[in-house]
Amino acid sequence: MIKKLLALAFAVGIALPTVTPTPVTAEVLRLRLTEGQIEPMPFAIPTFQAEVPGSEAIAAEISRVIAEDLVGTALFRQIPQSAFISNHVFNTAPAFADWRAINAQALISGAVAVQGGQVVVKFRLHDVFNGTEMGEGQQLVANADGWRRLAHKVADQVYSRITGESGYFDSRVIYVAESGPKDNRRKVVSIMDYDGDPSSVVSLTNGGSLVLAPRFSPSGDRVLFTSYANGSPRIYLMDVAAPNPIEVPTAPGNMAFTPRFSTDGRAVIYSLEAGGNTDIWMTDLSSGQHSRLTSAPSIETAPSFSPDGSQIVFESDRSGTQQLYVMSIGGGEPTRISFGEGRYGTPVWSPRGDRIAFTKQNAGSFHIGVMRTDGSDERLLSSASAGYLDEGPTWAPNGRVLMFFRERLGADGGPSLYSVDISGRNLRQIPTNGFASDPSWGPLRP
Amino acid sequence: MRILTLAALTALALSTAACTRPDRFGGDGSTDPNAAAGMGAGGVGVSGLGDPNDPNSPAYFQAVIGDRVLFAVDQSVLSPEAMLTLDGQAQWLIGHGYNVVIEGHADEQGTREYNLALGARRANAVFEYLVSKGVNASQLRTISYGKERPVATCAADTCYSQNRRAVTAIQLGM
User: Fold this and answer.
1) What pLDDT band is residue A331 in, cutting at 50, 70 and 90?
2) How far is CA B147 from the centre of its chain?
3) Which residue of A has its CA nearest to B119?
């Protein structure tokens, strides 16, 4: 059962003695997400206090998840509690000197109350060196089983206040869970929290038919995927909360596959094959109207919209090998943007609009990379060693991190999910129960 | 990009010829039961194949005529040897009324979407060839499994070459 938050309220301005903000004299605590950022920012997080008896366990868990979210970015470093000089009582003025002494630059404090089936989290963030509070204290409320989301939301707030960019911790990933032998793999569309937390995993299909490449809707409430349920690949749509797949009527063709939502979520772009030739089509989900976006004898597939909805990027082998092209939705000739060595596929437009992620094959090895939308500034973020394949990037909601799958080739091999910062740092495996492929990272949750 | 040399292409073509040699039944390892039963990745029923010694049986079609043709890396062009196999398939299919699904497949060294499209190209190459040889197009349907259903699972070209295939799968009970 997917955890639902009945109420997730941001009640800003917790009642407390008024504290006059200290005038900012030194440079404000700020972590700029630029190329140069190598040294993680040290932070201290005293275990959140239990405001009512019996809240201690959840309070400790929430503190742990907040710290894990931040440390997982590799932009932050947690100072062990054993190094703490003084205790901090939530809603009191921090003894900044004691936190400076252990080189904590940020202090995250909070309190938790679990009662009446609800969990209430309050937190504050302090800039230790300036002796100031960053932003206002906040209170967040959820059903008791939604405590993990509250932790992610606090971590998103901390990340956002310090980096100046939105976070990505309170988000989910749709992917394909794989099991069984390599020549008869069972594939199940599944959903989980961005960090792979096992308690968050829910199966959305039953494994009875081959399913491929699920894609989140922009608002995170629906999923498109390819299924062989009716014998031939077709496109299906389902609600994440009530996953009953319905076939999306496409333009006439033999196979319809690898759909994605348009930026506004109202249309589907997909690959349609007829007579051995694959082109890109778009179908409006409410009117059912189809439009053909490419018309070439070559393979055109893997389309992805720009966030402003005006362009798509896709791959085509019209030049002889897979390369990336950008075209306007209004029509016109596609412009090739990939010119490096090798072949390029699975392009995905960044939610920030400034970059395109892709899979690259060159000299027998597979990479995940990013380039600007005009093809310049190509950077490879991952490099699969011999016997492995990297494929299928998907963007974190803030466009700072990519998730993809790395497949170990051969009879006993299989895919696992990884994430990597667009700087190329912090390559990490996302824990899953068994093989996992085709991740699609959803938006920040409301 | 992977480039096959002319020598490699020739070698591949020769191995294709060996695999689809009409007299191979009872010969090399390619006639093992698993290979013969590999008639459909779609979970199509495989009962009632009949006796492979009976020239009218689907088992004969699979094992003796040869139900699959192989392709070079990233190619959908039919080799002369593949055409020879398909000539045999066409002749048999014209004489038997079975419906057929032509499955196109790719090896795992490619991206998922592209391999689906590549498999469709391969299936269509077989479709067009069979129709050109007189098979009724209404008997034939194509599908691609991309890299989803390998028959050989090792991470070497000995396996990949078997996976770059189009399989002509007889539909039973129709």
Assistant:
1) confident
2) 14
3) A276
